[in-house]
Specification:
The chain is α/β, with parallel strands linked by helices and 410 residues long. It is 41% helix and 13% strand. The protein has 2 domains: 148 residues, Aspartate Aminotransferase, domain 1 (Alpha-Beta Complex); 231 residues, Aspartate Aminotransferase, domain 2 (3-Layer(aba) Sandwich). A hairpin with a 3-residue loop joins strand 12 and strand 13.
């Protein structure tokens, strides 16, 4: 970066101008703040709570749980997994009703969906995945492969980007049952070409499972339009469901009933209250359920879904692009002279809502940043992820955090 760029970049003025022009600025008032936090840069790991979350939970405990008691199951709770699933599908997944259900953790649902995919493609024994995917995905795949005697074919993508269509085309063959890809790479923030990957996967006769944990609520996910077969995602990042909030599973209508998921429980049965002797799975998306659904834990995300619906996912995505562009410009002008490099895409079209910066001292200064109330996310060996949740994050908040990084490195 030239000396001219470094001297002309006014971080504070740029942040102030961006906040003043932000059409989504009013949504920041919906989120709880704390005096100990001056810059929250980890919204891609755990979203802030809404100010309405506490009262919503209190009202649920007092009125729905305390007042209705067991009657709540007949009145609304039995349908909650599919009702909330449909809401997520409509607002944030581009998924028609009847394909999304809120159930277990991401890990459990990954297990169910991959096992489902293997059984839906009998005679095929290979799982295609990439070595840069999140550990949960890789660990679950390894466990299933050992359990089923399946083969894993590992893609090794550029760590600064992610899995490409060409790499998937080279990896799939007549023995491939399922391809597992994260729509947004958790390290680099690279947005995969899911439509293209779905096409080459289907040409090989296999199924595509898309992990949308880092994309749901931050970009315009289009599961139906892109031809995704199966998907899994969490709700504690950009859906602000809170620590440990439940995950969701998507199974395209065309696949429902082709196979069975492996954890048979009464909630996924065709007639849960029939108390029949043998298990028969539901023919609907409810087949992905097993045990009692986490009704209480579903409540916090409902408010965030309303906000995303009001703001519009296109507006959320547009602000995400502006926020990450600000980080890149700041990094180039201010942090690059201090030895910081950007690991991830520059092109906004393939850049998710987080930017990963690298420096040998980032492990050391992360603790100091936290003590100052600046909270980014460190990823070994030397990555600092700047995770930006568009509805809750201001440009000046980002500027304050990056200024602290500059001070500690300087």
């Amino acid at each position: 970066m030239t000396g001219t760029r470094e001297t002309t970049f006014d971080a504070a003025a740029r942040a102030a101008e961006s906040d003043a022009a932000d059409p989504l600025a009013r949504f920041r008032d919906a989120f709880a703040e704390h005096a100990d936090v001056v810059s929250y840069l980890d919204g891609n790991s755990l979203g802030r709570p809404l100010t309405a979350t506490g009262p919503r939970l209190a009202a649920f405990v007092e009125q729905k749980w305390g007042g209705r008691l067991i009657r709540g199951w007949d009145e609304e709770w039995m349908d909650a997994p599919t009702r909330v699933g449909d809401r997520i599908g409509t607002v944030a997944l581009g998924a028609a009703p009847g394909q999304t259900v809120v159930a277990d953790s991401t890990s459990v649902l990954l297990y169910k969906l991959i096992r489902f995919a293997l059984d839906a493609r009998p005679g095929r024994n290979t799982i295609v995945a990439d070595v840069e995917n999140f550990p949960t995905d890789r660990f679950v795949i390894e466990g299933i492969a050992a359990e089923r005697g399946a083969t894993i074919r590992w893609i090794r993508p550029d760590r600064t980007l992610g899995v490409t269509v060409e790499q998937v085309r080279d990896a799939v063959d007549a023995d491939t049952a399922v391809v597992v890809v994260s729509e947004i790479a958790f390290k680099s923030g690279f947005i995969a070409d899911i439509a293209g990957i779905a096409q080459v996967t289907h040409e090989a006769g296999a199924l595509l499972l898309s992990d949308v944990c880092h994309s749901v609520g931050s970009i315009d996910v289009q599961l139906d339009a892109t031809g995704v077969d199966l998907a899994v995602g969490c709700t504690y990042k950009y859906l602000n469901g809170g620590p440990g909030s439940p995950a969701f599973a998507y199974v395209a209508h065309r696949l429902q009933g082709e196979a069975a998921q492996p954890i048979q429980g009464w909630m996924g049965a065709a007639d849960p209250f029939g108390m029949v002797e043998h298990y028969e799975p539901s023919s609907s998306i409810r087949q992905m359920l097993s045990g009692t659904p986490p009704i209480l834990a579903m409540q916090p995300m409902l408010g965030m879904l309303d906000l995303i619906d009001e703001a519009g996912i296109a507006g959320v995505r547009a602000k995400s692009e502006r926020l990450t562009a600000y980080v890149l410009d700041y990094a180039d002008a201010v942090l690059a002279p201090l030895g910081v490099t950007v690991i991830g895409p520059r092109d906004a079209a393939v850049r998710g809502s987080h930017v990963t910066l690298e420096h040998p001292d980032f492990r050391r200064i992360t603790g100091e940043l936290w003590e100052r109330g600046v909270i980014p996310d460190f990823r070994p060996p030397s990555g600092l992820r700047i995770g930006l949740s568009p509805l809750s994050t201001s440009f000046d908040e980002v500027r304050v955090g990056l200024d602290a990084v500059r001070e500690l490195l300087g």
